[in-house]
Amino acid sequence: MVMSTSANNSGHNLKVAMLDPTGTYASWSQDVAKSGYHWDFVRFDTQESMMAQLEQQVCDVVIITCSMRAQNELDLMADIASKQPGAIRIFVGAEYWNANQRAKAAELVHRVYPSSSSTEEMGDMIEYLVKIMRLLNRSSLQDYVANVGCLPSPPAIYRQLSEAIKSEVSDLREISEIVEQDPAIVAQIIKQVNSAFFGFNREISNLKEAISMLGVRNLRSLALSSQLHSQFAEGEGWNQFSFEMVNQRSLLVARLAQAISRRAGANKTVQDQAFLAGLLHDLGIMIMASHDPEQYRKLLSYAVKKQKPIYLVEKAAFGFFHGEVAGALLALWNLPPQVVEAVMLHHVPHLSACKEFSPLTAVHVADAMLPSVPVEGKCDLASSLSLRYLDQVGVMDEVPQWRIVANEYRVRMVSNL
Question: Which CATH class for the 152-416 domain?
Answer without folding.
Answer: mainly alpha
